Amino acid sequence: MKNIHYILLFLLLAAVTSCNLDEYPVDTASNQAIFGSATGLELYSNSFYNILPGTDVGVFQGDDVSDLVARNGVDTYLSVNALSPATSSGWSWSALRNINYFIENAQNSTVAEKNNYIGVARFFRALFYFDKVTRFGDVPWIDQTIEITDSLTLYGPRDDRFMVMEKVLEDLDFAIENITLTSDASSTRITKNVARAYKTRIALFEASYRKYHVEEGMQGTANTWYQEVVNTANDITGFSLHEAAQVDQSYRELFITKSPFADETILAVALDASLQVFSSANRRFISPTYGNRPSLTRNFVNTYLNLDGTSFTDNPDYKTTPFVEEVRNRDLRLKQTVRLGDYHRTENGVPVVAPPNFNQTFTGYQPIKWCYDERFPYDDESRNDNAHIIMRYAEVLLNKAEALAELGTMTPGEWAETIGALRARAGITGSTLTSLPTQADPYLIDYYKGKFTDPVLLEVIRERAVELIFEGLRPDDLRRWHIGELFAESQMNGMYVPGLGEYDLNSDGIMDVYFYQGTKPESSNPAIAFVDVSTSSGAGRLQLSNGTSGEVIFNPGFREWMDKKYLYPIPESDLIRNPALGQNPGWE
């Protein structure tokens, strides 16, 4: 049996050689070997999984380019004059051709289970096109392998994005109807519930894009897509929010387990040390020199509720509350997302106190989500083998809650089953678990620049940011809500510092950081982090907002936002090859 698998895999690789849009379709003698058996269909369909996020640049880095994260340097997306038709990328179609070739041939197969595998293929085609539409807007819809003589397709114009998204919806519905596997204990295979969960994500994006991008004139169709989110979320069964033995570990352990928790995880990428398949999560979050050194901003941390369900920003002194005090009695997800007072790491099995390390963080809100507690070898090498969650039930609940809020049909019962359930898992108590909010939080209104004023929707948006931080969804949220200015205008601020000097950040009696100006001082703690907050400005500098006191402010360099960046430019080389594509607005 093993030898047969190797032979089929060899034939499969011959059939799915990468190509550009204008290459000949592959047609080999291996066609019958692949499409004449369920084993062949399965092996071929496995090649589509490459479309899913990879392990090294996985979902945990996606939010580095967002309003919630302070990071080193400025991404090309926000740098002045860095993004252009000459530097743009992503106009690649080889994955689509591979999928279409499979669908065409599988439709002619006599294998009884063929529709299951066609369903998997159409699911991946939906993901492929969703990525292309969110990146470029209008794109050519191609649902067949094309011949090199088909000049009308090869050199034709783009199709309307809204038509393409209707096709995406059709593909998802076909997948949901025909994929035979409902759930997968390993959380690594495409199932009906995976397709349903992705449909809630994709339909939510499309609904809010149509509502808030008023220049497109599609607001009247938004509610249909919001209702698709609700209906599809209701069809997902067999999942629940993960609960650990200790309530303050339920959230964190989802992201540091080697085998996904199947109670909440719908789809994940499993890594394997024995196969040398790793990620660089620890290295990217903890190394002082590698990667973006992402840290949460204080403006975002302010949105975490108190444990009694009240807003932290209701405290009139919240702006000047020092770190040790501000993190007390807060939503338990905060201590499971960043280093707080009782956080420990281990070295050779021995617990080691680990306060925020200003040699590794810009703001003091240093992430631990996705990071192993063990110090070695994970910090200094790309050696993480914890599973990478791509889709989980918590997101489905949030997608449904947002759609209900937008439709104006949220009930106390729905609230308790979505937002209330997420907050209860986070240790929050009080009426916020069961009662619809009736007053909009002024802090959130201000943060989102008056874009949202409905109390229910604002609380859903609060919950979405807190629950899904570092899961790569925030940039698309800002784009679909048409609030891209937050990419560049959000302040990269950190903890409040009452004045220059030493500070104990975890109340263990040992000083952890020394803020100073001018000559570097001395400290009794040899491991202390010295932070120069001199008033000299410039990219990469840390300062205090009031000079010798105030919030830590990090300056990564100038960030620029222009509305044309809601869509990437068509790459120059592809436009030269096919002028009929036309360029996106503002990039001409």
TrEMBL record:
Annotated signal peptide: 1-21
GO CC annotation terms, alphabetical: cell outer membrane
InterPro entries tied to this protein: SusD-like_2 (IPR041662), SusD_RagB_dom (IPR012944), TPR-like_helical_dom_sf (IPR011990)
Keywords from the named record: Cell outer membrane, Membrane, Signal
Location of this chain's protein in the cell: Cell outer membrane
SUPFAM superfamilies reported in the protein's UniProt record: TPR-like
Main location class: membrane
Gene3D superfamilies registered for this protein in UniProt: 1.25.40.390
One family name in Pfam for this protein: SusD-like_2
Occurrences of domain RagB/SusD (ranges): 294-587
Family: Belongs to the SusD family.
Record protein name field: Starch-binding associating with outer membrane
Organism: Algoriphagus locisalis
